[in-house]
Protein: ROK family protein
Amino acid sequence: MAGRIFGSQRSLREANRANLLETVHKFGAMTQVELAELTGLSTATVSALVHELVDDGKIETRNTVRNGRRATLVTLARNQGLGVGIMINRRELELQILDFSKQSLANHKLPLADGHQPDETLDRAQVLLSEAIDAIGADFSEIVGIGVALGAPIERRDFTVAVPGIMTNWDGFDVKGQLEDAYRMPVYIDNDANAGALCEARIGAAAEQGVRSFLYVRAGNGVGGAIVINGEVWHGVTGLAGEIGHVQIDPLGAICLCGNRGCLDTVVNEERLTSLLSVTYGNLTLEDMVRRANEGDPGCRRVISDAAVRVGDVAASTCIAFDPEMVVVGGTLSLAGETFLEPFRESLERKLFPDVVAAIDVLPAKYPVENPAIGAAIMAIENAERADLG
Structure:
């Protein structure tokens, strides 16, 4: 009986620790009194947990004044400097701030209108960054660099969008130059799939398995891919390596945003997939479809599993070309779990050499949606570390 009571008390304490850390991560720096209000814990419990977490190096405290009274401000502990990651695609902007231990200190998202303008979007990103830095009680001098993950192929020679039309209004726009002028610090640009793969290679599914060569597939409103060899993203000569979304699967198919006909992206994208359900379901988003599939809806499950087969067919050809240890799958469609992963695996295995090589492991991404922004921040941190080494 005593053992059970002790175990339940320990579990409760761990849950309270996690609740407190999650609250500080979500809302930023706050006093112990504010923490007690938000978590529902007593001020005495919060005080004890704060002391414990300071000793563990998880959080930091400093004196402040609130409403004319002295108070203790609680923030997440920061290791060395800060790396900023910004993800921008056709529909969304996401910001991540990481320290050098690759702990996320802030994560914020904003929806974007179709056809958003680069200047306006970057202005919003800068406002979001300022607010996030204030919220975690940090200073801009702590930032070592900014990584940007764009939802389009990137030309490695000038770091602009490589294929016109994929991100409306962003063709030829100098994101790197504009942000470097604004912040006077290094800025690094890559596409969202490559940044997502870097995240999974460093702190995600591949890292946890000790795998250093893998294919990353990002399936959602379009399909992205990235190749990781010996722990590093392989960009190719122009930066277009791994762009499986623009592999032709139907010579007579629809015209893609890239200008070619019948690309995988013309079949696996939000508009196309949700249109298959519009007669019976009305207007759906991709997230709606995934949610319904996870609730057991047969129509949504069918659309997602059929999409998985098409993506698996193309991924198999890439696997034959460079023979990875593993395939890591992320993106919105991967949130459907085995509804997507099982037919993807079956399609992949069917197209690989039978009885010649072992089946390639397929794992869900650890950070299926957030990994481009996280990877962009890691990109900034790792470049700063290389610069320090000379």
